[in-house]
Fold this protein.
Amino acid sequence: MTQKLDTLGAWLLGLIWFLPLAYTLWAAFHPSGYATNFDLSAPLTLDNFLAAWHAAPFARYFLNTFILVTMVLAAQFILSTLAAYAFARFEFRGRDLVFMLVLLQLMIMPDVLIVENYRLMSWLGVRDTIFAVGLPYFASAFGIFLLRQTFKTVPRELEEAARVEGASRWQILLKVYVPLARPIYVAYGLVSVSHHWNNFLWPLIITNSVESRPLTVGLQVFASTDQGIDWSIITAATLLSAAPLLIAFLLFQRQFVQSFMRAGIR
Amino acid sequence: MKQSSLNAVYGWLLLLPAIVLLAAFTHYPALSTLWHSFFSTPKASRPAMFVGIDNYAAMGEDPVFWQALWNNLIYALITIPVSVAIALIMALWVNRRLTGRGFLRMAYFTPTVLPMVAVANIWLFFYTPQYGLVDQIAGLFNLPGTNWLGSRSSALPALMLVTIWKESGFFMIFYLAALQQIPPSLREAAMLEGATRWQYFRRVLLPLLMPTTLFVLVNALINAFRLVDHVLVMTKGGPDNASTLLLFYIYEVGFSYWDTSYAATLSVVLLLILSITALIKFRWLDKRTHYQ
């Protein structure tokens, strides 16, 4: 009995949760006349996507976002790996204090320091570039923290063995630590990519041209510059901008969920 | 001895790139925010001048600031408990063998993957008077159409709903992870002792999930002050500042009115809130072995 009630409740909530997406799909794949008219015989069409694609430089926005997430991820992987290795396996004075200072970024993220970071980017002369969108996120407390935890679980014996065989510190990091932390890299990578794919406020502030604007900002510029409020086209553009992540999520659902879990467990 | 000083050199060299960037884009801006809050905004004719606490005095008398702060508190007080509770329920359901568990997990989690801007645009469509889904459903029950985002009383709740929809699935993941660590024998033992489901939940599960709950709460709190994309897309803080949140107001002051000093002053309040959160987190939460 309770099992049935549970199933019913879970499905009810699931349908409510799914409804917005279903509605968006409906509006995007049907002619605008049917956007709010749920006639099952309505013809399916891709015209809305084509119209959206041609109405704004989405190809360029895709490229920008792609460059952005790749750049951020590469920088985060390298910087976090180095810092995490230092925190996990090197003894030196001031280490713990510096670690606490690093952790501060978990609370006070660059996301809220928009005014001063804008000033900094102007001073550096890199405003309105993809580089400026990513720069504040290159050093990630979250990444350092996750990798440090992982590196600490690597048995010292492995490191000793590698050293006996004549491996340098650098080789030990690359041949012992990094391969063992692969699942964490995947987890952190997914979290990072989806975060920066979706980031909006900072890119909105710091970019000002088609050449540097990521998808989220491009979508907003597109949706807010009077499309005559054609919802069919706006929903199509919305789906378009979320599509790569959404499709990746649907294909690799298990990995996504596990990655978010792994990144969450501390 | 020599080995240990070599170690220190290596250690600092490894840290250097990350530390420099962290200091440049987190610590320095935080301090510089505080610094600039004591100066006037430079104008073409007049450079920035030290004005002491004038900006703070102005803030104390700024009704929009108080409105934004108040809105943000209400926003946090409602969205956080509701989304955390829903997340827990979702996790309990998805953790069991229900029919269509795969679909359910996908339905719950999908909003998390979508960009907030996309989500906001979708919901903007729903809230459209008469034409949108919300009013269409209301129409089925012969309720009159409402301008959800255009009226003072419903704009903020409408935004809260979006937040709850988007965040619950994210928090569900953490609960799910925690639930999977709980051995099934606990449940069997409780049942043998004659505990009801509610008792098991209340006396066994909930205490075991406490660290997760605290972790999720802190994350939710940070997000409540950090994420304003939907405000920007859906209401721009309106009507009449009824739905403005602190960070959105900072954005407005800083990048629409270009009053950077006042924006810095407002940011100090936000940083203060986040620092208090950080303090609570470090003092309480990390009694567990997190940082060892």
